[in-house]
Design goal:
Cytochrome Bc1 Complex, Chain D, domain 2, disordered N terminus, two-stranded antiparallel ribbon, 7 strands, extended, five-stranded antiparallel β-sheet, alpha+beta, 3 domains, SH3 type barrels
Length: 268
């Protein structure tokens, strides 16, 4: 994703740009450089414009390291229409980064993250999440590994929606595949790989089956997602808040250190 856009002098406010936030005098240089070099596409508040994306709240950008962002600033993203800004020099690029972090820091941490410890108990207990999902080596294998979930997700409302509206999350196949071979053998499992000639299924006991489609008499896919959709009634509002808080607190311990619960006072 692009992090800056073509420099066009003084940026003008677009329909996507909100009023300029107030910052300390220390951020003045970074703000001015950001406004002259980035805001014409990303907006004065960094939340996106007509030609470039939101670089404040989008998790895949907000979670980039300082080094990764500086690399994008220096080299640009030509395929996305962003030129390199190495010509601004290290000092100004650092100022832009600092100001971007200020903009990103204005996001309010969701109150739900306060109950992360209780949410962990729900994840491995009443919620039954660990029957399908794994976190740092503990749990099931049927669903996605969530060991770095908190790094790639930022909005509590989106996480809550993914839990209580599992059937609306995407159009991808979320249910079991049911294969019947020509000789009458029936195999059910999750689709792990598929191409025009073959399909690989993982049965609920963990066994993998690589099947040539020419050897099948039937291959169907359940429309009902494997993930249950009753969490809105199974868990109370406070329990959902705690579960969301735990999910948002999960990070990859190898890259980001131990997973810890965020406090209400934390600023993101």
């Amino acid at each position: 994703m692009a992090v800056c856009a073509l420099a066009t002098g003084h940026a003008q406010t677009t329909a996507h740009a909100a009023e300029k936030p107030k910052h300390s005098q220390a951020s003045t240089t970074g703000r001015r450089t950001f406004e002259s070099s980035c805001s014409s596409c990303h907006g004065l508040n960094g939340k996106g414009g007509e030609r470039a994306p939101d670089i404040v709240t989008r998790p895949e950008i907000a979670t980039l390291s300082d080094g990764e962002i500086l690399k994008v600033l220096r080299e640009g993203k030509p395929q996305a229409g962003m030129p390199p800004f190495a010509g601004l020099g290290p000092a100004k690029l650092s100022d832009i980064l600092s100001y971007l972090r200020i903009l990103q820091g204005e996001r309010k941490a969701p109150a739900a993250t306060a109950g992360a410890e209780q949410g962990k108990e729900l994840f491995f207990g009443k919620g039954g999440c660990s029957q399908c999902h794994m976190v740092h080596g503990a749990g099931g294998f049927l669903g996605p590994d969530l060991s770095n979930y908190g790094t790639s997700h930022a909005a509590a409302a989106d996480v809550r929606s993914a839990i209580v509206n599992a059937d609306k999350r995407s159009k991808d196949r979320k249910g079991l595949a049911n294969a019947t071979t020509i000789d009458g053998k029936h195999i059910s499992g999750l689709t792990r790989n598929e191409d025009n000639l073959s399909v690989q299924l993982q049965a609920l006991d963990g066994t993998f089956y690589s099947l040539e489609k020419a050897s099948l008499s039937e291959l169907t896919f359940d429309s009902q997602p494997l993930m249950p959709d009753g969490y809105g009634s199974k868990l109370s509002k406070s329990e959902l808040d705690q579960l969301v808080g735990y999910l948002l607190s999960i990070v990859d311990t190898k890259r980001d250190g131990p997973a810890i619960a965020k406090k209400k006072s934390d600023k993101q």
